[in-house]
């Protein structure tokens, strides 16, 4: 298949994604919409395609190379195909090929003959083949990891024993993004990987595409930390740089950097740690404010993220006129602003605003200034609470946050 045909099939794939999203013409999509799409794709496929990668695929950023096969597989999976090959087979116009024109008419003769020859072949060689095939023995395989430091960025040492494995396809998948892998050799004992953000990750050892071992990898934030989320490497701020006048806030130099940027910047506050409580039974009270609403940040979008050992929630807030571009994620339940009325999440964050999130036995209620704006539920547990993030389009401040265990009223964080 030549490059022109491949490009035609890629356009068909992108067209189906655009139809699924129902966001209008992709030529009108702005940067925050590509960030939203990145989150949707990660939730559906488990693979993180950055907004920059997506803009390249859609031709919004000039790039000479073709998309990688991992990117194409992920796009196809987002619209419910097994992989890119599956999409191509279904998308390609089925014109009669040589096989269909020359071979199919004689299948009634060919098939019985081929079946007989195959049976003889299998009978003759089966014992030889069985004696030569050696199955991998995974009983002695071990797989562990250890972060080097407490801060960020953080390199992680992976220690493993591949005894009993003979394969040329051995990989470590660092976290949910299936494209972030480290190739291993049979005799290898150690490997390293780098992590730019704090979080709770699940690392996997794969042999021939099969998960052999996996374990949780916890990279803590060492208290509150902040980032300007540049790609691929963010800019970091320590807790000493963030607490200004009893508020969680970026220093003036960072706000000026955001204001002078021609491209949208997301700034984040992170608190990643063991909280010792189930994420399905907590109440969160916080007071937040948006501090930059010019140019590309006019929507004042905030995404409040709750991280668990088994899942996550993303609760969005934005200007009322921008609610079409947000999405509400409650672990296994997702509501797109394109297909659901999320206008209650249209909130003016120009001044400090009180937000309460009550989660009790997978039932969720969201309050703004003591007014109930949403009530719903999810099905799959998010596990233990291990993190909180504030993700501002532009910048924001946090005046207070309090987390309680609703089962006993105990204050977990204040």
The tally of structural domains comes to 4
Query: Order of strands in the sheet with the most strands?
Result: 9-8-12-21-14-15-16-17
Tell me what portion of residues adopts beta-strand conformation: 25-35%
List low-pLDDT spans: 97-101, 127-133
Helix content: 10-25%
Task: Please state the oligomeric state of the protein chains shown.
Answer: single chain
Q: What characteristic shape results from the CA principal axes?
A: globular
First-last Cα distance: 60 Å
CATH class of the largest domain: Mainly Beta
Q: Which class best fits the helix and strand makeup? A: alpha+beta
Transmembrane segments: 103-125
Keywords: Membrane, Transmembrane, Transmembrane helix
Secondary-structure blueprint:
Layout: H1 3-21, H2 31-45, H3 51-57, H4 69-78, H5 84-91, H6 98-103, H7 107-132, E1 142-147, E2 154-161, E3 170-173, E4 181-184, E5 190-195, E6 199-207, E7 210-219, E8 225-228, E9 235-237, H8 239-242, E10 243-244, E11 247-249, H9 252-259, E12 266-272, E13 281-290, E14 302-308, E15 312-317, E16 327-330, E17 333-336, E18 353-360, E19 363-368, E20 371-377, E21 385-393, E22 396-405, E23 411-413
Antiparallel strand pairs: 1-2, 2-5, 3-4, 3-6, 6-7, 8-9, 8-12, 10-11, 11-22, 12-21, 13-18, 13-22, 14-15, 14-21, 15-16, 16-17, 18-19, 19-20, 22-23
């Amino acid at each position: 298949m030549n490059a022109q045909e491949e490009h035609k099939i890629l356009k068909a794939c992108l067209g189906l994604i655009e139809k699924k999203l129902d966001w209008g013409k992709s030529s009108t999509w702005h940067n925050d919409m590509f960030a939203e799409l990145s989150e949707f794709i990660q939730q559906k496929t488990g693979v993180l395609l950055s907004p920059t990668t997506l803009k390249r695929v859609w031709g919004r950023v000039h790039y000479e190379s073709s998309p990688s096969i991992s990117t194409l597989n992920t796009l196809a999976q987002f619209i419910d195909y097994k992989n890119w090959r599956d999409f191509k087979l279904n998308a390609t116009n089925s014109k009669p090929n040589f096989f269909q024109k020359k071979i199919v008419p004689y299948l009634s003769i060919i098939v019985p003959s081929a079946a007989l020859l195959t049976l003889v072949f299998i009978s003759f060689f089966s014992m030889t083949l069985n004696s030569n095939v050696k199955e991998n023995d995974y009983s002695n395989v071990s797989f562990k990891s250890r972060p080097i430091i407490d801060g960020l960025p953080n390199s992680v040492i992976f220690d493993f024993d591949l005894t009993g494995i003979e394969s040329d396809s051995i990989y470590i998948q660092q976290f949910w993004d299936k494209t972030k892998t480290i190739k291993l050799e049979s005799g290898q004992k150690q490997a390293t990987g780098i992590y730019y953000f704090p979080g709770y990750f699940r690392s996997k050892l794969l042999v021939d595409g099969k998960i052999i071992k996996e374990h949780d990898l916890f990279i803590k934030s060492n208290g509150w930390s902040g980032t300007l989320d540049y790609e691929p490497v963010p800019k970091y701020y320590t807790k000493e740089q963030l607490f200004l006048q009893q508020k969680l806030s970026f220093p003036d130099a960072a706000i000026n950097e955001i204001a002078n940027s021609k491209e949208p910047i997301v700034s984040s506050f992170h608190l990643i740690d063991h909280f010792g409580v189930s994420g399905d039974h907590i109440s969160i009270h916080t007071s937040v404010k948006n501090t930059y609403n010019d140019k590309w940040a006019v929507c004042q979008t905030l995404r409040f993220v709750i991280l668990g050992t088994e899942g996550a929630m993303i609760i969005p807030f934005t200007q009322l006129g921008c609610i079409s571009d947000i999405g509400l994620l409650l672990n296994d339940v997702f509501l797109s602003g394109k297909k659901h009325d999320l206008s209650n999440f249209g909130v003016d964050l120009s001044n400090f605003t009180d937000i309460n999130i009550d989660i009790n036995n997978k039932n969720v209620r969201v309050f703004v200034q003591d007014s109930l704006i949403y009530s719903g539920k999810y099905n799959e547990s998010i596990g233990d609470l291990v993190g909180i993030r504030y993700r501002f389009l532009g910048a924001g401040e946090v005046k207070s946050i309090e987390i309680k265990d609703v089962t006993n009223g105990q204050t977990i964080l204040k």
